Here is the input.
Amino acid sequence: MHDGRHDFAFQTGDWRVRHRKLSERLAGSADWFEFDGTCRGWELIGGAGNVDDHWLDDPHGAYAAATVRRTDPATGLWSIWWLDSRFPGLAPPLQGRFEGGVGTFFGRDEHAGKPIGIRFIWSAITESGARWEQAFSADGGATWEVNWVMEFTRV
Here is the structure.
């Protein structure tokens, strides 16, 4: 079994990021807005951890954010925490792994005071780019609404 180390090594370095966000989440909206940002990523603890530091030029208010990731070498599962300068504390973690070059991670949180499922997918990973998407589910994972996509281009 693969212990997960270095699964996020592709993210090491500097990136331009094109963000595409749904205007309203879990509201049946089809209205998207786009903006640019930057990201710098690096590995920690011999590849068993990873951090990325973001600047998001969101037209609703620019902000900084970061992701902290840690794999459990016994299971190969990664835990992912999102830190956002607009809110105190850590968001609840998502967990998952890479299979066939695609990373899929699931977690639970709240949206508008209601429990939801959250899914992150990392895909299209190459030397020069990668794609990340976030989706929410309000029905226990029966359906998913993609509400945020990041397209990474290496600087």
About this structure: The CA atoms of residues 88 and 99 lie 33 Å apart. The first strand starts at residue 13 and ends at 22.
